[in-house]
User: What shape does this take?
Amino acid sequence: MFETQPQKSRTIWKVLPVAIVIFAGLVVGAAYLQRTAAPPPGPVEGVLRAGDADFDWYNKYVMLESRGIKMGKNFAGKRMVMFSGVVENGGEKRLDVVEVKLTLFNYDEPVFDRLSLPIRPAPHTPPIEPLKSRAFTVYLEDIPGEWMASRAEMEIHGFRFAN
Assistant: This one.
């Protein structure tokens, strides 16, 4: 007697414009963040190293705690060494750059060394405040073939005070 025709749902036409606006907002936000990203890292100036009076004075307040040096393989199957540590700033100045020296040894003879900046200025990397610490990890992928994986060390080689 009474037949009801099922009405087609029109909610899709109500939700679709909202979804398109949200998606467009996400795309614009991602493009903005990509545009405001930091430029590629270049040379850092003003790093204090051994022999500088300020380095020799403040070096006793900057400590490096090694959290482990591990060897592994990258996705290409080549050997790599992972250095992990924590820099402790026990002094009164802020540090925005910390430079470490990575050294690979065969027994007691150094075979390879490299300087690395695990802590450097970046949009999302604030300086290390006084009496604070910061963890870091550095990957060393271009290992010389003559290294027999006997020993590796890292040490603080330089730092810079934040302005």
Observations:
- Residues 11-35 form the longest helix (25 residues).
- Helices lie at 11-35, 53-58.
